[in-house]
Write a structure and sequence with these properties.
Pfam families: Iso_dh (PF00180)
Strand order of the largest sheet: 2-1-3-12-11-4-5-10-8-9
CATH architecture of the largest domain: 3-Layer(aba) Sandwich
Oligomer: single chain
Largest sheet: 10 strands, mixed
Strand content: 15-25%
Domain Isopropylmalate dehydrogenase-like: 20-374
CATH topology of the largest domain: Isopropylmalate Dehydrogenase
Number of helices: 12
Family: Belongs to the isocitrate and isopropylmalate dehydrogenases family.
CATH class of the largest domain: Alpha Beta
Number of domains: 2
InterPro entries: IsoCit/isopropylmalate_DH_CS, IsoPropMal-DH-like_dom
Keywords: Magnesium, Metal-binding, NAD, Oxidoreductase
Helix content: 25-40%
């Protein structure tokens, strides 16, 4: 877990009155769901007060100014903010000269080396067949194919184009995200023990599943696998209470859809983690309910998993739940567990009642109506 953040916050939380949070709505529905999350934070009856700083980033900002991530935004986050909330970015599927994703850049600038994505189920009358799952996917956030080292050449033999992409897997990055996975497995177990047994979906010892494809990519995925396994093996006493298993990424996808209840904490390289976590959203109804946090040792940034959804932007029908849960994740990683649980509980109440839902969940309610329902349940 982000130990330096937690130590810094927990030692000052009794005296600190205000948290400065950077808000980066960016593109599309980000401009609707981030204000909803802001309202929820402002409505908490306990915990810190908040000061919000509105910052620019995104493809639309790039189109206006030629810059997707202004240096001013980076400086504010590094030097003034305790954390941040990022909305969504409309990265084009084709190459645009001079443009690169601001969220990928922010992860590197702020050394947010892990993307933490909880996927949990909430049963309701409208989802009687919902499988019970409480899975945490931890995605390495700085390497793999996302280093964006690509080139295109012409094959002299055929005269046809050939594209190449370099992939980076380092022992350093693999080790620290592996440690986070095992630490969070212990943390989750501690939190479970505080719940009534009837509310605990996971009935086993905490477990970390290492995802790889080292049977094909024996060098890169081989290093990833060996390094993450080594975290437990080299800290046998500390992690004695945590089981460890492995899954090839294709087998992981198959099993995740067949038996999602079989997984506790899943740790994967960047690309695999991206695909798995987006796919896992289908298990709980929608990308619109799945949160994430980009976590480093000194900073955390909440980010809903969904994209900018330009087809529904401006219509007040985007689901704010993922952004609200991401704000709760932000609180949790900053050490305000009590307040985070209040937000989680309010959201779960709305989802379980299933009377106020946005269209992605089969309802007819608006972004504003769902936000108001969460606020009433705080």
């Amino acid at each position: 877990m982000a130990s330096n953040i937690l130590r810094r916050t927990l030692t000052t939380s009794t005296s600190a009155k205000t948290l400065k949070i950077g808000l980066l709505p960016a593109d599309g529905i980000g401009r609707e769901v981030i204000p909803a999350a802001q309202r929820v934070l402002e409505s908490l009856s306990s915990g810190p007060k908040f000061e919000f700083v509105h910052l620019d980033a995104g493809f639309e900002h790039f189109q206006k100014t030629g810059t997707a991530l202004p240096q001013e935004t980076i400086d504010h986050l590094k030097n003034e903010c305790n954390g941040a909330l990022f909305g969504a970015v409309s990265s084009p599927s084709h190459k645009v000269a001079g443009y690169s994703s601001p969220i990928v850049a922010l992860r590197k600038h702020l050394d947010l080396y892990a993307n933490v994505r909880p996927v949990s189920s909430v049963k309701s009358a409208s989802t009687p067949n919902q499988k019970e799952l409480d899975m945490l996917i931890i995605r390495e956030n700085t390497e793999c194919l996302y280093i964006k080292s690509e080139r295109q050449e012409v094959d002299p033999k055929t005269g046809l184009k050939v594209a190449w992409a370099d992939r980076k897997i380092s022992e350093y990055a693999s080790k620290r995200v592996g440690a986070m996975a095992f630490n969070m497995a212990l943390t989750r177990e501690s939190l479970r023990q505080q719940k009534p047994e009837s509310e605990r979906f996971w009935k086993h010892k905490p477990r970390v599943t290492i995802v790889h494809k080292s049977n094909v990519l024996s060098v890169t995925d081989g290093l990833w696998r060996e390094t993450v396994r080594g975290v437990k093996e080299q800290n046998a006493e500390k992690y004695a209470g945590v089981d460890m298993e492995e899954q090839l990424v294709d087998s992981m996808v198959y099993r995740m859809f067949r038996e999602p209840e079989a997984f506790d904490v899943v740790v994967a390289p960047n690309l695999y983690g991206d695909i798995i976590s987006d796919g896992a959203a289908a298990l709980v109804g929608s990308l619109g309910v799945v949160p994430s946090a980009n976590v480093g040792d000194n900073f955390v940034m909440g980010e809903p998993v969904h994209g900018s959804a330009p087809d529904i932007a401006g219509k007040n029908i985007a689901n704010p739940v993922a952004a609200i849960r991401s704000a709760a994740l932000l609180l949790e990683h900053l050490g305000y567990t009590k307040e985070a649980l209040q937000v989680y509980g309010a959201v779960d109440k709305v989802l379980s009642e299933a009377t106020i839902l946005t269209p992605d969940l089969g309802g007819k309610s608006t972004t504003s109506e769902v936000t108001e329902a969460v606020l009433k349940n705080l």
